[in-house]
Amino acid sequence: MRADGEANAQTDPCGQLLIQVAAGDRRAFEELFATQSTILMAVIVRIVMSRSLAEEVLQECFAEVWARAGSFDPQRGSGRAWLVTMARRRGIDCVRSVQSSRDRDLADGLRSAAEVGEQVEQTVIDRAESDRTIAALKLLPDDQARPIVMAFYQGMTHAQISETLKVPLGTIKSRIRDGMRKMREELEASR
Amino acid sequence: MNADRDYLAAGLALGGLSDDELVEAQALADTDPEFQAEVAAYGETAAFMAASDAPAAVSEETKNAILSLPDHLAQESATSDTAAAARPDSDAAGTDAAPRDGHILAEAGDRPADTGATEVGDRTAAAESDSSRSAQTDEAASGADEPIDLAARRRKRNWLPWAAAAAALIVVCGFGISAWQMQQRQNELEATLAETQQRLDETARLMDAPDLRTTTADLAAGGSVTVVSSETEQLIHVTSRDVTPAEGTSLQMWVIGDDGPKSVGLMVGDAENIDGSDFAAGNLFGITVEPEGGSPQPTTDPVVAVEL
């Protein structure tokens, strides 16, 4: 991050591209897609658990990138963080919207609600199995990684995580804090 | 930084704080630049974690849709956004007041504006965005409302792209709709169309089919199409809303199986029943814009494609 409104090309290539996109640079937009789309797709898929839904959410994300790259402020964080945050937000909104829609159908007590639900998921990924591909989490013991994943990818509150895992809330909070601290140290050491 | 502040900073960046903690953390971020820097650092950590995942492939169709966004999507100026940013964002820093849309099928004019960012994905934020919807005149849409450039797309096609799409399970599909909504649409149709008794019987058989599938898809040119099908009954029921083909064109319907696309007729009314066309689960149903009267094979990309 720099204080002068510019992003450093070496340390924040995404940020630099976002600034160029905000100026209408289409080539920068295409490069951003080329370099970031697959990782954003991974984030979104992990949240929405459906490839077809994820494709839609990804489109919405890049629409926001093109339309609102101007709102990226390099002083406040990296371009990568801006993108990931936005993708997560849209993914979680999507899940909540689908869930409300299903809940309405179930409330209506309709026979076909089950069939309606099935249409939404084209690909179901086994959650526990696949979390192991998140490399950064290998730094952490399972009991720290698990609540972090639940908070980030499933949008659960720490209280909900505590209830689900049947672990006291205070313990969950410490584990999240310690796990995040550990990953942060790793990140900062590698720079 | 003491343990509590550390937790609040990490929690603000990651997500999941309680309402009270959220208020406390945001107040700190507003008043304490050191805390704000901690939040930003944890935001980078969360992004670092997310980005350490195995990359996931993006379909060709989505890629093309995204790369063509600059053709028709306006950019918002930076000044209006920075003016609106009131507080440092908990969302891993770097995000200003971003619009929240509570529903990914929302139309362009229907997206909520939400200044004053709150914790990403937090249920409070979701509730706020649901309850404080205001029309955005210029909001980024995914291009769903833009007309197709027919001239650019009208070129000889074979059905291989469709097979590739089927292999990648790519459809322009929305969510299934409830049987109640289907019933409502059915009622509308009965009021406006002179349907034969046979047609009514077919539809009833469809509704009772154990393997009923339903999908609604929005057309880029406006309007939507609902496809209801049953493999056991070998029936497809297609209804459209607000879909009007351009002058000199017809909307033609196709079933694409292993042998390629087979025409199942033109859409001439608001609803069509298709029976007697063999189709299997996994086949694609598509609609293309063709010259008036139809074509023996599709000559354009489908405006709608759903899996049967």
Short description:
Chain A has helices spanning 13-22, 26-48, 51-68, 79-107, 113-120, 127-130, 142-153, 158-165, 169-189.
Question: How many DSSP helices of chain B?
Answer: 11
Q: Stretches of chain B where pLDDT falls below 50 for ≥5 residues?
A: 80-146, 148-158, 163-176
- How would you sum up the global shape of chain B? elongated
Element order of chain B: H for helix, E for strand: HHHHHHHHHHHEEEEEEEE
Helical percentage of chain B = 25-40%
Number of strands of chain B: 8
Largest sheet of chain B: 4 strands, antiparallel
The shape of chain A, in one word, is globular
Q: What's the total helix number of chain A?
A: 9
What oligomeric assembly is this protein in? heterodimer
Percentage of residues in strands of chain A: under 5%
Q: What Rg of chain A is obtained from the alpha carbons, in whole angstroms?
A: 19 Å
Radius of gyration of chain B: 24 Å
Runs of chain A in which pLDDT lies below 50 for 5 or more consecutive residues are 119-126
As a percent range, the share of strand residues of chain B is: 15-25%
Overall pLDDT confidence of chain B = 70
Which secondary-structure class do the elements of chain A indicate?
A: mainly alpha
**N-C termini distance of chain A:** 13 Å
Neighbour order of strands in the largest sheet of chain B: 1-2-3-6
